[in-house]
Design a protein that fits this description.
alpha/beta; TIM Barrel; 8-stranded parallel β-barrel
Amino acid sequence: MNNFTDIFNTYSWEDTSRSIYSKTADDVLKALSARRRSLEDFKALISPAAAPYLEQMAQISRQLTQERFGKVIQLYIPLYLSNECNNICTYCGFSYDNKLRRKTLSPMEIMQEVAVIRDMGYEHVLLVTGEAAQTVHVDYFRKVLRLIKPHFSQISMEVQPMDLDEYRELIGEGLHGVLVYQETYHRDDYKKHHPKGRKSNFEYRLETPDRLGQAGIHKMGLGVLIGLEDWRTDSFFTALHLSYLEKRYWQTRYSLSFPRLRPFSGGMEPKVAMSDRELVQLICAWRLFNQEVELSLSTRESPRFRNNILKLGITTMSAGSKTNPGGYAVEVESLEQFEISDERSAAEIAGVIKAQGYEPVWKDWDACLTS
């Protein structure tokens, strides 16, 4: 097997979906009692048959998370550098066909944003852009990393997929982690939602984690956009992908996110709605399946939901987020990528975490090991 595509192509979406939906209560009980859980066990835990066992799943998830990560929640914040984008994505406010004011931050504006973020207490920042190779390219990212590296312990990116040599170059400049979401593993629906731009290349995006692993990235984030397709089937393929990556690139750390489709300018209704209870089931299923992976929850979710899920498996949260370039300090009119739901400040979120007996961590816990 040269890369994950070779494994992926041996699976059928339809067969996988049927397998998940045919799982029984006995399959769920077997998964709950297993010492090490397989991909088949994961299918059972995300299946409709597992719904009556959510309380038991939540208790195990909480225990496993505390055993591995302790009672801490790492905090990070996104810094949107640009909303310029050459892709057409049906669900995104930055989509090329949306008529909006485009903005890419200058070095001076970036440092204004950095000053506000540092005042909040953040040591971990996630750089986010649209995909516009003529503006936000490797040279731009290199300059940004050099500019802000002295101010943060960890710098991660969620930008366009890049080539192997480009990742190696940016890692050399201090890039710590990369988040790259497949959006959906359903090949035909992927094409439907990404009809134009480089992002329309399903295979190139699918193979991005392989390039990251080969480049020696310290941390990699995976996930799908929940709502584009059946979340259970998409989650299985994410688990298949993660299992492959962990075996092949074992020195890399991994995280997962659970973004549910949120409104944006022009709005798109989810093809498949996911209830709060189902999201809890998915998060707990992931923890039972993999005790090492970090599980992250963004401000897309409501304050009430984020408060309640905090103890059940989540290890990383964003807080005080703005999803438009210049949102923290620069006075510009630029469209948000999506609407956030939890608008509480970083200090308020830290207070909520402490009130539940957990410790907010502003700095990645293994930074001393990688410096």
